[in-house]
Write a structure and sequence with these properties.
The protein is an alpha/beta fold. The strands form two sheets. A seven-stranded mixed beta sheet has the order 4-3-2-5-6-9-7. The chain has a two-stranded antiparallel ribbon with strand order 1-8. Helix 4 links the parallel strand 5 and strand 6.
């Protein structure tokens, strides 16, 4: 029986063989690698991956596709993790520090929260290769001064080196999505290369506030989390917009705010 793609799971299945081979070649898995595929679907990437690795982990939420995977693959070759990738603890599959390789044609309707979730496991990951909506990849790689730059850009660029690898047209899928897609590689930065953040919660709060109203200057968007003197102290132009700030500027401001004692409430 043919599987009917389910809209609620954001299912668009890859059918372009040349593209599939290009993705697997970009991953270039070795026989003993610990590889996890998110949303294997009908197995377009699963099958060529299995030709290169001894064992494959897959995370799938669709019960019909899970049943199909069980029929096609012995447990010795494929471990099926049933459930939502947003709730899955990827770190528990890591063979060691930085050893996990994650691949997937990510459902576009949950791609941004899933990327944030995966970033939490960065220290356990060697690399990640994802098919995403092209617009999301544009946001991921956007640098200072780019209008596509946002919270996703800053938070991912803090942890990863990002490479835009392949552009993918809608006709590469069944059913074709209404948007263009792209394949991106995320490689965790070495621990020693990470900028020192004193308090991750404060850093997240500063970045989120900065991009809360994109058209406004940071002196206005950052008003809830810092004073104009704080911007001056770390060399941030109060008339700049959040998209203009470098990663280093965000870290410097967050570290200043983390080190600034909270004033006592007024009597």
């Amino acid at each position: 029986m043919k599987h009917i793609p389910r809209k609620r799971f954001g299912q668009n299945f890859l059918v372009d063989v040349q593209l599939i081979n290009a993705i697997v070649s970009a991953v270039s898995p070795a026989r003993g690698d610990t590889v996890v595929e998110i949303g294997p679907g009908l197995g377009a990437i699963t099958e060529p991956l299995l030709k290169r690795v001894d064992h494959l982990h897959v995370v799938e939420i669709d019960r019909d596709l899970i049943a199909r995977l069980k029929r096609l693959h012995a447990p010795e070759r494929v471990t099926i993790h049933e459930g939502d990738a947003l709730a899955f603890d990827f770190s528990r599959l890591a063979p060691g520090q930085g050893g996990l390789r994650i691949v997937g044609n990510l459902p576009y309707n949950i791609s941004t929260p899933l990327l944030f979730h995966l970033a939490e496991a960065a220290e356990h990951v060697r690399d990640m290769h994802f098919m995403l909506q092209k617009e999301v990849v544009e946001r991921m790689v956007a640098g200072p001064g780019d209008s596509d730059r946002g919270r996703l850009s800053v938070m991912l660029q803090y942890r990863f080196d990002l490479e835009w690898l392949i552009d993918v047209p809608p006709e590469s899928f069944d059913p074709p999505p209404k948007v263009d897609s792209a394949v991106v590689r995320l490689t965790p930065k070495p621990r020693e290369a990470l900028l020192p953040v004193q308090d991750w919660t404060v850093f997240d709060r500063v970045v989120t506030a900065a991009f809360s109203q994109r058209r406004k200057m940071v002196r206005n968007t950052l008003k809830p989390v810092c004073a104009p003197a704080d911007l001056d102290a770390v060399g941030i132009d109060p008339q700049a917009r959040a998209e203009d700030l470098t990663l280093e500027a965000f870290v410097a401001l967050a570290n200043r705010m983390a080190a600034t004692p909270v004033p006592p409430p007024a009597a």
